[in-house]
Amino acid sequence: MAGGSVANTIRGLSSGFGICSGIIGACGDDEQGQLFVNNMSSHGVDLSRLQKKKGHTAQCVCLVDELANRTMRPCLSNAVKVQAQELTKEDFKGSKWLVLRYAVLNLEVIQAAIDLAKQEGLLVSLDLASFEMNADPIAAVEFLAKYCEWAVVTLGSNGCIARHGKDMIRVSAIGESKATDATGAAPYVLTVNRNQSTHFSTSTVNSIANQASVIREL
Fold first, then answer.
1. In what order do the strands lie in the sheet with 148-154?
2. Is 69 exposed, middle or buried (0-12, 13-18, 19+ CB in 10 A)?
3. Fold of the CATH domain 1-82
4. Is 92 within 8 Å of 120 (Cβ atoms)?
5. Which of 2, 58, 102, 173 has its CA 20 to 30 A from that of 73?
6. What are the tens digits of pLDDT across the range 86-117?
7. What is the mean pLDDT of residues 117-128?
8. Taking phi first (over 0 means left), then psi (-120 to 50 degrees means alpha), and beta for anything else, what does residue 140 get?
9. pLDDT given at position 175
């Protein structure tokens, strides 16, 4: 199954919300690469900017114990990747949002993508999540709000909190359910680039974030 926070998000936006979404990246010419293509295309994701390269597709091992606690161990060392110099303005033209996942191994690509996205007037969403991070959510959202226009911290079944300037609000999760498989469940942090403006109210952003967290946790 295709995975990763960005892949999960755009697949959910496409199939669950009917929002036109595409992926910029690369996959290998192996069986895993074909599985990725099949899974994403079956959910209506635009793959016209996905490069197929000779080599291995990135994989991730998910370890789950009897209490549904889990940890993930990605294997990226020999996986094919999109390079910063391969990105062009055309990749972003006509889009409204750029959704990224922070990774120390991809800083050059991340910076190049953000620079091009800004030139095309896109809003930038950066997922800073760590599924093994324990931090005070209030302190986290206050810290992030210093560097971006909108900062949202989702809290799984406890909903989420958001901050915009001095305005901070907490919203409960949408609906109630008992998790039977926590493999894909994880709270995550969403930030919106401060150099871009939005017309959303804080409550609207929280609602979107809560729905996004549902996508991540399915």
1. 97-101, 123-127, 189-193, 148-154, 160-164, 167-171
2. exposed
3. UDP-N-acetylmuramoyl-L-alanine:D-glutamate ligase (3.40.1190)
4. yes
5. 173
6. 999 999 999 999 999 887 778 899 999 999 99
7. 91
8. alpha
9. 66
Whose structure tokens read 């930030």? 191
The model carries a pTM of 0.73
List C-alpha distances in Å: 214 to 5, 94, 150.
Answer: 12, 27, 20
Distances from the Cα of 131 to the Cα of 1, 135, 170, 179, angstroms = 19, 11, 21, 16
Evaluated on CA atoms 136, 154, 11, 175, the torsion sign reads positive
Q: 177, 166 in Cβ contact below 8 A?
A: no
The tokens describing 36, both together, are 């990725």
Residue 207 identity (one-letter amino acid): S
The partner residues of 53 in beta bridges, in order of sequence, read 28
